[in-house]
Design brief:
This protein is an alpha+beta fold and 629 residues long. Helices cover 40% and strands 19% of the residues. The chain contains 18 helices and 20 strands. The strands form five sheets. A six-stranded mixed β-sheet has the order 4-7-2-1-10-12, with no helix packed on it. A hairpin with a 4-residue loop joins strand 17 and strand 18. The chain starts with a helix and ends in a 9-residue tail after the last helix. 45% of the residues are buried. The structure holds ligand BES and zinc ion. Zinc ion (ZN) binds next to helix 5.
Length: 629
């Protein structure tokens, strides 16, 4: 009997060994080369992370332990991680043995590789470390920089390759892991992560987190602040500072509906809860799709839900991006192009086709402008959907191309085959590749087989090649005609042709119509008309950040100085890069306004997160030295 058990165990062990080798062989095929990570996933790949961190607002340091569980091939000797400005105190193997490690050379973009010798039979490594007070992912805010002005605040922004500035890990979108965390923060503050989250503060200021679905490193996120939670539906809620909480919950009350719509389109929501946190205005993006907890800028709270497409966008990433993830940053359109497409589909179902066509039209306008600018600057390669960012910062790829050209490409396919075929195809795409990564080539192969061949439709090889691999605007760019925008243009032309301002019929206009109106104003406009428009419609006083932004752009062109004090306020307090960059760029065009740009930036710079600060430093050709406060 015993012998039988022994034989059985031997067979079982052998089977496990085969299984393990198989899985590593599969892994070998799986990990495409990522030019933005030092990791060696084909030899040793992390599968789980345990964090135990202490957040100190005094020193601006997060310190503690990161325990990494990993899988190896038989020949693996080293586990290689990405780090940037991290101070490593010691590294331990599973059995308490200290592990040898060495740092590689510092690269200004990629940081440093951390090469750890794997202690024999160890499948876990514990790293005792702390980050630098200047960690690029983290912004530490003083109470005055928050809405309630009472307590400090911190948030991280890990995408694209900044997770390595606060956690030593394999920072490549192709590598997924689950995580648990324990975070100690000052007693009056609540800590939240891209994980299962607490809803109330506790006495000790110790919070624990669990993320059971495997995610890539760029979705690691932490925020600490004096925030409260308000439920909005059975699986949605919002966290915000007290003075923002009611307003936020009202603005985003359609979120639960959006999830329902999204599930109808692309299959079940696989992350359990969907909450959001409204961050202070220095947050460098509109939104960031951290799983289970979208990080959002307060600048989308307009009071009339007019900017909630951004929530549809971040929610859509729960499928495109978080569930099926771009394999490298060269495939970034796989995340963003799909997400813009998906965002418009959600908005169409929520507010109607003529509403989503306004979004599509604005997207196409952005695309045309971006392509024109890149080509004028001789950077036509940057207008390709599939990028080549080797040797560059992946942040350079964050342009309108992956978003709006990506969207247009998917819309082109949709129009070619019809929604009755495209929708089920997309649903199956997300289902078949859930919790996996996707390269551009992988998608094209899947598309050819599962959409075109399956439905007996000719695959337009040439056209698709042009969309994905060639610069500029493809010949098959979808025609987008928004009726509501056509009406705006008609009215604007009448007004510019000498019509009375009072005859403009704007009662039913939404924010998007206003945006189109402002953007369509001619480059030169009679100063009287500028003033008349502002007095009648109150653009300079608008509470809507997108309208303000569009108007300020015109104000700079017109040298309409009455708007400048408000614009200065706006630039000092808002850190959202997409709103800042065009304004500074416009000011740089003229000597007089260039001076103003530098003066404003000097005041604004300390409020910006690293992501926005580094973009503006480059644009304004200044650095830390010029601007020591
Ligand atoms: N994931 C992006 C933000 C991002 C991209 C951060 C690349 C870092 C590197 C997010 O989903 C996004 O696209 N935000 C947009 C939203 C808009 C397109 C609706 C933003 O912040 O403006
Ligand atoms: Zn996005």
């Amino acid at each position: 009997m015993n012998r039988l058990i022994v034989v059985f165990l031997i067979v079982l062990m052998a089977a496990c060994q085969i299984k393990k080798e198989e899985s590593m062989t599969n892994n070998k095929k799986k990990y495409v080369n990522d030019a933005h990570s030092y990791a060696n996933p084909n030899e040793a790949v992390m599968t789980h992370l345990d964090l135990d961190l202490d957040v100190d607002f005094e020193t601006k340091i997060i310190s503690g332990e990161a325990k990494i569980t990993f899988d190896t091939s038989d020949s693996a000797e080293y586990l290689i991680l990405d780090t940037k400005d991290l101070e490593v105190k010691s590294i331990w193997g599973e059995n308490g043995d200290e592990a040898e490690f060495e740092f590689g050379e510092k690269d200004p973009i990629l940081g440093q590789e951390l090469k750890i010798k794997i202690p024999s039979n160890s499948k876990e490594i514990t790293i005792i470390y702390q980050n630098s007070p200047d960690a690029e992912a983290i912004q530490w805010l003083d109470p005055v920089q928050t809405a309630d002005k009472k307590a400090p605040f911190l948030f991280t922004q890990s995408q694209a390759i900044l997770a390595r500035t606060w956690i030593p890990l394999q920072d490549s979108p192709g590598i997924r892991f689950t995580y648990n965390a324990r975070v100690q923060v000052p007693q009056n503050l609540l800590a939240l992560m891209s994980a299962e989250n607490p809803q109330i503060k506790n006495e000790e200021g110790i919070y624990t987190f669990k993320m059971e679905q495997p995610i890539p490193a760029y979705l690691m996120a932490l925020t600490v602040g004096d925030v409260k939670f308000q439920s909005m539906g059975s699986r949605t809620g919002v966290y915000a500072e007290t003075s923002m909480l009611e307003r936020s919950a009202k603005e985003f009350e359609d979120t639960e509906k959006m999830i329902g719509i999204a599930e109808g389109l692309y299959g079940p929501y696989r992350w359990d809860r969907y909450d959001m946190i409204i961050l202070p205005p220095s947050f460098p993006f509109g939104g960031m799709e951290n799983p289970r907890l979208t990080f959002a800028t307060p600048t989308i709270i307009a009071g009339d839900k007019s900017l909630v497409a951004l929530i549809a966008h971040e929610l859509a990433h729960s499928w495109s991006g978080n569930l099926v993830t771009n394999a490298t940053w060269n495939d970034f359109w796989i995340n963003e192009g799909f997400t813009v497409y998906f965002e418009h589909r959600i908005m169409e179902e929520l507010y109607g086709h003529d509403y989503s066509e306004m979004l599509a039209s604005l997207s196409q306008q952005d695309l045309k402008n971006e392509v024109e600018n890149f080509i004028a600057e001789g950077k036509s390669d940057d207008t390709k959907l599939k990028l080549d960012l080797e040797g560059r910062n992946p942040d350079d790829g964050v342009t309108s191309i992956p978003y709006d050209k990506g969207y247009s490409f998917l819309r082109y396919i949709e129009e070619l085959v019809g929604r009755e075929k495209f929708d089920p195809f997309l649903k199956e795409y997300f289902n078949a590749h859930a919790f996996e990564t996707m390269t551009t080539e992988g998608f094209l192969t899947y598309l050819k087989t599962n959409l075109f061949e399956k439905n007996d439709i000719d695959y337009p090889e040439q056209e698709i090649h042009e969309w994905v691999y060639e610069p500029g605007l493809p010949s098959t760019l979808p025609k987008i005609a928004s009726d509501r925008f056509a009406l705006v243009e008609k009215q604007l032309n009448e007004y510019l042709g000498g019509g009375e301002i009072a005859s403009l019929d704007t009662d039913q206009w939404t924010t998007h119509e206003w945006l189109h109106f402002i953007k369509s104003l001619p480059e030169d406009l009679d100063p009287q008309k500028i003033e008349e428009l502002d007095t009648t419609f109150g653009f300079t006083k608008s509470g809507n950040s997108e309208i303000l932004h569009a108007w300020f752009l015109k104000a700079i062109q017109y040298n309409y100085t009455a708007a400048y004090p408000t614009m200065e306020e706006f630039l000092i307090h808002t850190g959202r890069r997409k709103l800042l960059t065009p304004l500074y760029k416009e000011m740089l065009k003229d000597e007089g306004t260039k001076d103003m740009a530098l003066k404003i930036y000097e005041k604004a710079r300390p409020n910006y997160h690293f992501v926005s600060r580094s973009t503006m430093d480059e644009l304004l050709e200044v650095d830390e030295e010029n601007f020591i406060q």
